[in-house]
DUF305 domain-containing protein
Amino acid sequence: MSDSELRAGGGLPASPTAPADAPAEPRRQDDRPARDEPGTARARPGEAGAPRRRRRGRAALWWTPVVVVLVAGLLAAGAALGDLLDRPPGESSVDVGFARDMSEHHAQAVQMAMIEFDRGGDTSTRSVAQDIALTQQREIGIMSAWLSGWGRTQTAAGAPMRWMGGTGAAAGTGHEGHGDTGSATMTDMPGMNGTAGGAASAGDTARMPGMATPNELRRLATIHGRDLDVLFLTLMVHHHRGGLAMAQYAAQHADADRTRSLARAMVLNQSIEVDQMQEALARLGAPRA
């Protein structure tokens, strides 16, 4: 029997040929590409990525406590240095001596400037006096606050200027009382006998550089107009020169940055004011101080 006859007679099953438009059999779950589990890294053939990552992680964990210890040590060292630098200056330091003596020195300048501002005859000179009074009174407040913060008294017994290695008797200014023979004790000066802003100690017997004498201050308080302008300018030029010597020393030898900074500002401001006052004397027809 031929093959065709066998198929026709049912001896063999018909060929299982599916129609062309029959739908494709759905892909089984097992045929899908494998996915990586969350949190795992796929290792490509021939690579050892995951082991390297684990080694790097172990190294980072080893270094972490070392870095923490180093940072903590640096912070501790910085804190110790800061405490050292923030310690208040000593009783005999340049900083404390400068703050005390310059406050007293400034107080007399404020006193003289207010006399000129009230009764002077020259508008320009009165303006200079006002600037001096405002600036130096502000600086007195700054230095007074320093002394309080350092736990130091505003004044000290004994002769001034010991922080500069001297006694303060017109040292280095070329100003020996402007020809005045009166005794120049700080406790005799008006406004310098315990008043706020520049009290003198009872034991002070020496005059700081540039300070006016009691006789000069009394004369300043009794005149007015041009005579007052000329005397004020003359006395204040000498007063500034003495203050400049003190400020220059503090700017070079003080320990605290704030002290050196204020001293440098005083040097700059008072140098400018000396030039202004010399020009004013020339304009008023008076000799240079």
About this structure: Helices lie at 3-8, 49-85, 94-119, 123-149, 214-220, 225-253, 257-283.
